[in-house]
Amino acid sequence: MPTCPLCACTRSRHFHRDARRDYYRCENCRLAFVPPEQRLSPEQEKAVYDQHENLPDDPGYRRFLSRLFDPLERRLAPGARGLDFGAGPGPTLSLMFEEAGHPMAIYDPFYAPDPAVLERRYDFITATEVVEHLFAPGRELERLAALLPEGGWLGLMTKRVTSEEAFARWHYILDPTHVCFFSEASFEWLAKRLGMSVEFPAADVALFQKRSVR
C-alpha cells in the first residue's frame, strides 16, 4: 500500500477507482489520496492551471473567497500581516486582505516562486483551493505552521470527504490536479500534529489557531 502523504502511515486501503486513477485512504489520518505514480508531471499541472480564469475584479470569485476571508478576517488584529500560499496566476484573496488593512505576501510554486517569502514570519497564512494539489501536504503544512507565532492563524479552503459513497460520484476528484482529499478527521489529526486548534466555519473551510506552548 502507498505511504500516506499527510501522516506517512503505511496503513492505507484501496478506497475508489475511476477510469483514470486509483484512490487510497489512510487508516490513521483518514486522508484520501492518489498514489504518486498516477500524479501529473509539473509541466502537465501548470498547463491545467494556465487555463484558470480567476480575476481579481470578478465579483463571483470574490464571493467564493469570502467563505474563508469573512470568518478569518473577523479573528485578526488590525494590521495583522499575512501570506497567501498558492496564490495562483491571478492573486485575489491577498488583495481582499490588503483592502481590509492587512499587509500581504504571496507565494506560488509556478507563478510567484520566491523562496525568501517562506523564511519570514506571519500573523496568518491562507491557502485556498491549494491543499488538494499538494504532493506532500504533511511536510508543506508543517512548514507553514512554523512561520506562525502563538495565536497565529492558518486558514484552509478545500472541499471535504464525507463518505465513500459520496466520494464515488464527487466532481472534485475529476480534476486531474487534485491528489489529496481531506475529511474533518484529517484536519483534526493535523491540528493535533501541529499543536493547533481547528474549527469549521463553512463546509469547505478549516481555521487553525496555534496554541501556546506553555
UniProtKB/TrEMBL annotation:
Gene3D superfamilies: Vaccinia Virus protein VP39. The keyword Transferase applies. Keywords: Methyltransferase, Transferase. This is Class I SAM-dependent methyltransferase. The keyword Zinc does not apply. One of its GO terms (molecular function) is methyltransferase activity. It comes from the Bacteria. GO terms for biological process: methylation. It comes from Billgrantia tianxiuensis.
